[in-house]
Structure formats: structure tokens, C-alpha cells
Structure prediction request, 482 residues.
Amino acid sequence: MSNVSVKPGNPNATHDISLFDGKDTWGIRLDGGFDAVQQLPSDTSTVVFSNAGSKYGDGETGMSHIEQRDWSGGRGQEDFVDDNSRYFDAQNMWTLQPGKVFPSLQWKIADGVRIGNSHLPGNMKWQSLISATRYLSNTFTAGSAYAADKAYMWIRRRGSPGTLTFKLHSDTAGDPGAVLQTVTKTISDVEDVVSLFQVFDWAGTESLTDANVYHVSIYGAAGDSSTNHWEIGVDDSGSAAQYSSDGTTWTAADYTLYYRVVTADDAQKWHMFILEDVLFAVSQPDSGSSVLMEWDESTDTWSEVTIDNGDALSGTVKSVAISGKLAHMARGTANTIWTLQVDGTDRNGQTDTTAGNTADVIHAFYDPVDGPQIWRGENDNDYVSRASTAAFNTDLEFGDDIELEEDVLNIADYNDQIWVRTTSKLYSIKNDRASKLNVGLEVVPEPDDYSPMIAKDYYLYVGWSFSVERLYGGTLDDMGVW
Prediction:
């Protein structure tokens, strides 16, 4: 660069700073002049600077760093200096192996629980939506008649691309035909550059006909480039996709798109449990009866369980407790406890006939004095009680009610005692008496019918407000993240 004149004491300097590499000179003007240059203390860092581990890394006091070589302590720590094996948050990273950090496992969604069509096999490669492959489509055949409510695709953003457009089509001679639904996304909808299993949710639903062929298509903006574009997850072992530069003329591709087309979301949660080495899941819908499903490891699918002997499952399951070879299910105060038995290939059911054997929450616990017990929480009258375990086809016999002040949300065992979480309180049960732990949980009462609580290692973790509390002995710490 010519005409660069910078030196101390020069009243007519052309620039504030000059850089010279032995051949060329560059002039730099500071935004705000020399007042823009400030000397500030550096922020602390966890970067590793050498192979020798130490508390402090690279030297003098103003430039010291606390190195981090291990993340196995997990998330939720506010102050790093408290434990340098932990961290605040990491967007689902796998950190359990000391000294290593890995991306989390890819989501996979099993078949059999929900009506729809999908292709989500496993390992995935990326295809850019530019030039000859600006448009991609994929064919599928509806496995049944259903009302399609939304679709999902694996996408990844590169730079700042233009609008991403998803469409659902009918079929015309093997190519995408009439447009049935359209959804667009921009970088304001996808702010991060990590890959996302992105939902494309159109207004209303689209009725798909059993055995009819349909297409999903997706394309980027005409102005996208190798620097700014969208990428789509594909399975390079398939061949159900097509590509196009203009969305009109399509060519067969040597891959299949990752996609999912499904019905509307069901308002329910699932209780998963293992009984006799078989994985089960029972639904808890907002209304109607629960559905009991069984996992088939050989086909990676769920199928509804048929009860071979005894009573069929009805009502809404709210909680499950495993005791020996039985799974007891609480069905609220309108239905008595229902029990599942696995006997070889048979699935047998038992409904307790004792009128008072109802529960909103149920929990199995091995009492150090009385042996295996079944604890229940009942919310019509706000109490807990316990029964010794019983054989299949034998009703549980619950003892005296231990009255509480409000609804029971959860029951757990910790430190050889039963702990009960209610709407705004935490109790330990000692000698069949409730002892309240006064820690101020009533400041923010839990509004739902369930609050997470689990014992792990030496701690009892309790969900509260937008945070997690950790109990150790008589000390309760707030863990975050808020």
C-alpha cells in the first residue's frame, strides 16, 4: 500500500498503525482513534496449554488460567472453581469418559408407537442444496390412511443462506406432483449452525390415503452459494431420493433422504420399565385408557401387548413400580392397582379387587427392617401408606395412612428411607411418620401432578421451579440450570 506514513511524533501521519512484512506496508485507522485502544485484564480460560497438568496454566498473575482436562462431573455447575471436572452446560455432549468430550448420540425414533412414514436408519451424510442439487425430493408410500400433521428432516446450516422451503407432494409418474403443503424456514428460525432434526409444521392436517405414493421435497434459495447454503441429511446406502437444479426435471439419486411424516402430537407421556429382561412402555394420556407396549429388539419396533391371562389393562396409568417379577401400576383414585406378570411368552394381568387399593403414585422399596414393600400416594385425601409385597393374583394389604398436607407428586427411596415430594414440601418417612424438611420449597409450588425426584449415588435430586435441588444428608444445594 502506498502513501502510508506512520512514525512517532509525526503530526501528519496518514494512519494510526502500520504493518510491514519486509515487502509491503499496510496502514490501519482505528475506529475512534487511539482512545479505542484499551488495556483490559484477560478473561479466565480453561484451555490446556501443555501436557503437564496443573491448576494454573501459562504464567503470570494477570494471565493465569485454570485448565480443564476432564468433564466427567457433568453439567449444572455455576462456578467452575468449585469442581474443575464439571461445567455449566454443553448442549447434550457426552462427557462421561474422563478426558474426552464427544457429540451426543444421534436421535433414533422407533416404529410402532405413532402412525406415519419415516426413514431414519443411523449413520448420516450431508448433501448441499446448491447448483445441480438445489432441489431434493424423496418418495414414500403411506402405510395406512392417516392425517399427516407435520414432517421432520435433518438439516444443517452453513453460513447465512436464504429461505429453506419444504413441500409435501402427491405423485406424478414417479416425480413430485401437486403441492399439498408448504413450510419455509429462515436463519431466524435456525439460529445455530449445529445439525438439527428440524420440524416442518404446516397449518391443519393433510389426509393421506393408504398405499398411495407421496413425495417430500426441500430446496434452498436461488442465491445460495458454497459459502452460504443449507445441507440435508442423507443415507448413502439408499436410492429413493431425486435431485434437480430447477424443481422441474428430476434425476434419480444414489441416496435416500432422512425424513419423518407423522400425525398430530398426542398429549401423553410414557412410563418405561424392564420386567423379566423385557422392555415395556405404558402411556399416560391426558384422557382415555393407557396403552401397554413391548419392545422387539430384533426389529426395533414397539407393539401393543395382548394380555394372555387375567384382567386387561384399562384406565390411565400414572405411575409404575417394579417388585420382583411383577409390575404394579397406579391408575388414580378411580381404579384399583393393576399388576403385570411376565410368564415366559405370556403376559398376565391382575386388577386388585380390594376397593381401597387405589393410588396416584406407587413405589417399590426394600425396607432394611420389614423387607420388600410397596408404597403408594393417594391424592383424594393426601396420604401415603405401605404394604408388604404379595404374590400374583393376591391383593396388596396396605397399612395405616400417613397423612400429608397436600397432593403427593413423587416417592423415592434415599439413604434407607422413603422420601415424598408434595406440591410444595419434601418429607422423609421415619417409623411410618412424616418428617418435613424445611427448605423453602413452598416459595414456588409445583403446579403439575409430577415432579422429578431420583436418588443417585450419595444424593437425592429433586426438581423444583426451573432448577434442580440436590440433597446430601441434611444439606440441600441448588444445582441449576435455571
